[in-house]
Amino acid sequence: MRHIFHIALCPLLLALTLWCINASANTDMQAATAKSVRSIVTGIVSYTRWPSLDELPRLCIYRSARYYLTLSEAGATPLPYIPVVVHDAPDALAAGCNAIYFGAESPADQLELIKRYQGKPLLLIAEQNPECVIGSAFCLIIRDDIVRFSVNLDALSRSGVRVNPDVLILARNKKHE
Fold it and tell me: Which residues form the signal peptide (predicted)?
């Protein structure tokens, strides 16, 4: 009886070990993806200029964003923006954002908020708008452990901010993956 118990336990231990290894690899991949998201967003903000802004820009990060913690926590290197976590459009309007990082908000929701900010320079970055046709000027494309971004030049030209042309070239060049 004792021998049968050991035989039955072996596959269970093997399955548990494999699950732990897979979970560890997944965690490492998620950490690398989060680091890439932070790097891309901080790069975009760093190379953006707002007219008559004398301090760091306020980046409002929607709580629905998968990487809101990554973008809002202070790390080893200082952030080129002041992070503000918001829950909805009224929060974003009240916070006086210079830039907004959208999470699960649809492109239509993004457009609605843009209309409410009319006339103010505003950089818009979306986490879940891979087509990047309407809404945000910059859209992250996150697949597996690869993070890229695309640019909606029409939205960027209406944003009131100026972005270094090197960032725009980088969006077309897939080497930033």
Answer: 1-25
Could you tell me the pLDDT band of residue 129, with boundaries at 50, 70 and 90? confident
What's the rounded Cα separation, in Å, for the pair 121 and 26?
Answer: 39
Q: Are 8 and 43 in contact (CB under 8 A)?
A: no
* Predicted confidence (pLDDT) per residue in 136-156, tens digit: 999 999 988 889 999 999 999
- Residue identified by tokens 């991949």 is 29
Q: What single letter denotes the amino acid at residue 12?
A: L
Give alpha helix (H) positions in the chain: 2-46, 68-72, 89-95, 107-116, 153-158, 165-172
- In the chain, the largest separation of any two C-alpha atoms, in whole Å, equals 80
Q: Which residues of 141-159 are buried (b: 16+ CB within 10 A; e: fewer)?
A: bbeeeebbbbbbeebbeeb
Identify the CATH number of the domain defined by range 32-176: 3.40.50.2300
Paired strand residues for 141: 148
Q: Which two tokens stand for residue 97?
A: 């954002």
Q: Which residue has the tokens 């697949």?
A: 143
Phi, psi of 49 (to 5 degrees): -120, 130
**Contacts for 143-148: CB closer than 8 Å, 24+ residues apart:** 144/29, 145/29, 145/32, 145/33, 145/36, 146/36, 146/177, 147/33, 147/36, 147/37, 147/40, 147/177, 148/174, 148/176, 148/177
